[in-house]
């Protein structure tokens, strides 16, 4: 490859401080006041109302322009494929939510239609999702434990669970937490709080979903082994559950275990075959649907439930549920869980939505996505759905089978509607172990996220630490508390990185106006008599004291010691003056004493310090006071302190913080480090320095 030709340039100008820059560039007046912004936001007009309508209901914008010729076939095939996937996944994830399987079908219908109207992503498949379902399951089992629904069975003379009452109560809990999480999402969207997802970094989200997947696996082991472990809640609940399952393994139902193993092996082999033939097949083989159909037929013919005690889905009512007002009395018990669901569901959906948007060149509105998901959850809850988000596996199928718009999502909902109304009852003999096996196999993609750890170890160890800590917290503290703790830890890493930045002394690359850290480059040289100091982070209350300490350490100046020595000399001089005043006849001795007590700066000290503030994006009051203190203290021992590279916001912070006065003006702020250096070198004996460092001065 040919070397890039370097272009040289030469600029002749005066040394510019911040005041001169304001004059030359003609600094503009402050922008619109808050009052004017509010007044402008409240102003209504025809075009503004139209824009608001199209933004709030995106389907009105894109559906009239829908191209049947280009999109219809792909969306049709994609919609049917995703709808077929929704059937087994919806029923399986309903088990995670601790509600009857048919409610997973409802959750794959209503929310999908609402998102079709209000969503802005063209490719994500909204519906049931394992992580969300296990979070809801944690809430339902905590608020409505089996122990509250034990009744006495006169036939067996033992206590049994009143399944009907238990399911009804858990549905009420799931609906309440879903409705409340939807309200949270709508509220956050209306106040333009979509940026909250920025606090969910990719390592955090991937570590969290991996930890939640462990909860999913453990929660389904009871269906795999056919056992009934006790329900634990709170921190370390997963550990206690695993110990309980280990204790109950000798009581495993062999028939259930055989069904689980055979289903898992067959699903894995079928999925591998699917992947091998993916380029030859127009659409993927509906492995899960075939598995559900075959397992249902075998269970019905062999009577797995009656002969071998294999637990099956049971009664599936045909038709849809009538609307029901959520139980507001439960809101107080689930408000924290609802907020966690709102954040997690939105974080997963917007992350995947942005990936597809970047790939296909369109924009996803983060605030509108919050509103769309909120409406999907709150409206769906009225029809007894549980909280939804988007599924990566279904979204990839929706994209790979030709889906180009959310019409594919609407068609998948129609497929689910058809199944719910007319076919659902055929799956009453489906073993729950098969649904658990479907969940296990579908988690293989999330389990691959463990490979993030070695990759992050090589690229960014702080991100690796966030991943690992998030995973551990999620596993130990459960998904709701784990998320809050993980976000807190992630924020702490940011704070620690600003508290412990890299402090550097800068030097000049010869014959250029470029300054780099001396310790990082061999050919970078100090400017004699000038200390150029830079911090890699902003300056605020958390690191202000460390900034001053680092400046003293890097410059080799113990400012406290030097100031103390100066004050002692001044005190001694004043005492000598008082003594001399009492003895007028010893005027000559007085003069000599005063001369002897004069403070003379150490010639080894630098003449000036340049503080490079280019990495600083804001200053709080403590930061401003720190800079004032540095300028005052070093000025007292004869060292000039100037600032360089200040952003406009930083200059405004200095102005509002009282940094400037009659003696301190913008003449101590310079546009670049090079301007500041040239200002500090304009002495009588600096021509040698200018020549040595390739600096040409204009007079």
Automatic annotation (TrEMBL):
Q: Which GO molecular function entries does the Swiss-Prot or TrEMBL record give? A: secondary active sulfate transmembrane transporter activity
Give the primary localization class: membrane
Q: Where is the STAS domain?
A: 520-680
Tell me the organism's taxonomic lineage: Eukaryota, Metazoa, Chordata, Craniata, Vertebrata
Write down what this protein is called: Solute carrier family 26 member 6
Subcellular localization, as worded in the UniProt entry: Membrane
Listed CDD domains: STAS_SulP_like_sulfate_transporter
* Membrane topology, from the record: Multi-pass membrane protein
Gene that this polypeptide is encoded by: SLC26A6
The organism's superkingdom is given as Eukaryota
Q: Which GO terms describe its cellular component?
A: membrane
Give the stretches traversing the membrane: 93-118, 173-195, 256-273, 285-302, 338-358, 370-389, 409-427, 471-496
InterPro entries, alphabetically? S04_transporter_CS, SLC26A/SulP_dom, SLC26A/SulP_fam, STAS_dom, STAS_dom_sf
Alphabetically ordered keywords of this record: Membrane, Transmembrane, Transmembrane helix
